[in-house]
Amino acid sequence: MLAPIDETLSREELTTFVAENLSALTEKEALAVLAHRFVTTAIVQKIAQNERLIGFYSIRLRLVAHRKTPQAHAAKLVHYLYWSDQVRLSVDVTVPAPARRALDNLLLARIGELSAGERITTARRCSAALIKVLLFDGDPRVFAALLVNQRLRDDDLLYFASSPKAGPEQLALLAADPKWSFRYLIRKTLAANPRTPRAAAAAQLRHLRPGDLRKIHSHPNTPVYIRRCIERLAAHASSSTPQRRID
After folding, report:
1. Which of 27, 94, 104 is nearest to 67 (CA)?
2. Rounded to the nearest 5 degrees, what angle is found at the Cα of 237, between the Cα atoms of 231 and 241?
3. Are the C-beta atoms of 123 and 145 separated by less than 8 Å?
4. Spatial distance between the Cα atoms of 106 and 113, rounded to a whole number of angstroms
5. Per residue in 79-134, pLDDT tens?
6. Pairing with 121, which of 2, 39, 41, 196 sits 20 to 30 Å away (CA)?
7. How far is CA 80 from the centre of its chain?
8. Rounded Cα–Cα distance for residues 152 and 154 (Å)
9. Which residues in the chain show pLDDT less than 70?
């Protein structure tokens, strides 16, 4: 057992220590070296090249996240992390961007291998790249998990809500969501998508501007039920505001 790593070691002393003791470093000692304020890219590379040390999961994990790990080593080591850690590191802004890109690419390649439970867990905190894929997952529970993801954006949901591939159950979840359903553009897009369940689509109409109602009414893909709802709204409004009508 080596002496504990002294945090007061200078850069030169740390370099010498690692050069003399690399082959004997324990897992705990290697982690202490990686955490040292004077650790260099050269030292990190030596640890990353040591097959014995990277056999420890904690060291692989730390190397992927370390800002001084050479990109080639980080890109290799991401393959040997657990899925949950891959997802976590892919959205950690302290992890170098090249490593996060490598993680995203790996996650995207493996998304089809996941169970429903794993996809649901992933959806709650994944990166923007995975959000775009999971939006169209066939399981509504995955979509429900995405709705609480802090990285989800209006543009993602507008793209989804306007798509002919959007699932009716997912569209209904969006229409009922207490955070997202109050966005005007989302209301309008839900009302305009013929795949939105008619009760959910009709509930949006009273919140829309007359010009948008006219556009939805005149669109050839708008269901007859929604057209009739718009006409009833216009007829009701005309009693107090005659100018507002659907042509």
Report:
1. 94
2. 130
3. yes
4. 12
5. 999 999 999 999 999 999 999 999 999 999 999 899 999 999 999 999 999 999 99
6. 196
7. 21
8. 7
9. 1-4, 239-247
